[in-house]
Write a structure and sequence with these properties.
With about 400 residues, this protein is an alpha/beta fold. The longest helix has 22 residues. The protein starts with a helix and ends with a helix. The protein has 2 domains: about 140 residues, Aspartate Aminotransferase, domain 1 (Alpha-Beta Complex), CATH 3.90.1150; about 220 residues, Type I PLP-dependent aspartate aminotransferase-like (Major domain) (Aspartate Aminotransferase, domain 2).
């Protein structure tokens, strides 16, 4: 019996680079005390009021099939939220509700790419990006960015890889780097997409976690709404990772295509989860700010703990729940450093190599431990790095 070739095509024939995470998980299961700073799982749990709204919806009978694109009240609420944030007129028919942001990414690429096309994505990247593109049968091509430019994409790098491309996937505020693409960067990206007639897929799941400057959605730039698809999610903004609920905002033909795909794959999102999301969104900006506040505070803890180290260079963290640090001064690769840090100090961080070649020699630190434990882990990480540097 043979497994379909598309599965090996998705992986690209290489490991996923998450060896440190798997090792840390095994150590924790064996009873070891590990400071786990690997994955972006908020240590904040879903607010009890949201869970009560979910339970009430289920108890009232909203447990049957739902319409593929999502319930109209939730789609209207998402459309209003996006319009208020961007100033771009947004109809509820531009919105499709999906089982999380990852399902949204998959559906959009399936709707926009054919086998043999090229799908671009910026590196460093969230690890599922290339596999999501390859799942369509297309070729995934990375657009590199540079550590010494705070990992801001450049139009020339996009143009150099645009032959045969139909889509470009970006993420700001960014996982894994913690940077926010500047207004100039977003304008350059938009211009390159217009010049090369690319769909621009903008993953904005961290748009409530902005510490410096401002988040600029490319959909808000003149003439871009017709070629931009925005990915959103409740996972980070409302600590609802396990509820698996996200969305796309797109021109209506794209939304309709994604709805067709939903009908033939997920068959929609549970109605009681959609009702909980509607309740959560209606709690407003103050609620979202309270969810984001610990990560802002911990960003400052990292800046104090690592900011002036001779062995660790901090990439200025501007948003999201991560920071990225350059540890090349230690003489080790990111992978070597991370594995040794785990075995010797019981601290788990993600090696930059997990996120693509531009992040080699770096580490991603997730801000998902309570403040005191994070501060203690950073002090040990700094001491470990400085001892290596000598």
């Amino acid at each position: 019996m043979k497994i379909a070739d598309r599965i090996s095509h998705i992986t690209g024939g290489s490991a996923d680079g998450w060896g440190v995470y798997y090792r840390a998980r095994d150590l924790i299961a064996a009873g070891e005390r590990v400071a786990n700073l690997t994955i972006g799982e908020p240590d904040i749990k879903t607010d009890p009021a949201i869970l009560e709204a979910m339970a009430a919806s289920a108890a009232s009978g909203n447990t049957g099939y739902t319409v593929g694109p999502g319930q109209e009240p939730l789609r209207r609420e998402i459309a209003a939220r996006v319009q208020a944030r961007t100033g771009v007129p947004t109809n509820w028919r531009n919105v499709v509700v999906t089982p999380g942001g990852q399902a949204a990414l998959f559906a959009v690429h399936m709707a926009l790419l054919d086998a043999g096309d090229v799908g671009l994505y910026c590196a460093p990247f969230y690890p599922t990006y290339p596999g999501t593109i390859r799942a369509t049968g297309a070729k995934a091509v990375a657009v590199p960015t540079r550590s010494d430019r705070a990992f801001q994409p450049e139009a020339a790098e996009i143009e150099a890889r645009a032959a045969g491309a139909r889509t470009l996937l970006i993420n700001t505020p960014n996982n894994p780097t913690g940077v926010i693409y500047s207004t100039d960067t977003v304008a350059q990206i938009a211009a390159a997409c217009v010049a090369r007639d690319l769909w621009l897929i903008s993953d904005e799941v961290y748009d409530t976690q902005v510490w410096n400057g401002a988040h600029v959605s490319p959909r808000a730039l003149p003439g871009m709404a017709e070629r931009v698809v925005v990915i959103g999610s409740m996972s980070k903004s409302h600590a609802m990772t396990g509820s698996r609920i996200g969305w796309i905002v797109a021109p209506e033909p794209v939304a309709e295509a994604v709805a067709v795909l939903a009908t033939n794959t997920t068959y929609g999102v549970s109605g009681f989860v959609q009702d909980a999301a509607l309740f959560a969104l209606r709690q407003g900006a103050a609620f979202e700010a309270a969810i984001a506040a610990p990560f802002h505070r911990r960003r400052d803890i990292v800046a104090r703990g690592l900011g002036n180290s001779p062995a660790v260079r901090l990439i200025p963290p501007e948003g999201a729940m991560y920071v990225m640090v350059d540890i090349r001064a230690t003489g080790l690769s990111g992978a070597e450093f991370a594995h040794r840090l785990l075995e010797q100090e019981q601290i788990a961080v993600m090696p930059g190599e997990s996120f693509g070649a531009p992040a080699a020699g770096h580490l991603r630190i997730a801000l998902t431990l309570e403040d005191g434990a994070l501060e203690a882990a950073l002090a040990r990480l700094r001491g470990f790095a400085e001892a290596l540097r000598g």
